[in-house]
Amino acid sequence: MRHNNSGRKLGRTSSHRDAMFRNMVTSLFEHERIITTKEKAKELRPIAEKMITLGKRGDLHARRQALSYIRSKTVVDKLFNAIQAQFADRSGGYTRIIQTGVRRGDAAQMAIIELVGYEEKIVKADTEN
Among 13, 58, 111, 113, which residue has the fewest nearby CB atoms (within 10 Å)? Predict the structure, then answer.
């Protein structure tokens, strides 16, 4: 029985899983959109939203908490400046998961996880050029 055991194991040890999610959160905030499996995206979403909430708090303790999880200082600066301003008036739902189909090699369900507002940046960049 799995009473009070939430979260997927994803076929990895706990240390591998923690390292993988730290890398994925760092990549998500760096690129604002990543392609991964649907299960990993679903597990990544609450972690990313907690980091955005820390960015919205904006104090020194929140910055140190984010630095303890995110692997890059430049990504933390981006989180506390650009991303925080982007979601200042939003009270939740900062990420979006879009299912894209199956992977050819092992038929794993693939998905795109992105920050809400990513497509607006693309459209704005296309109209400026």
Answer: 13
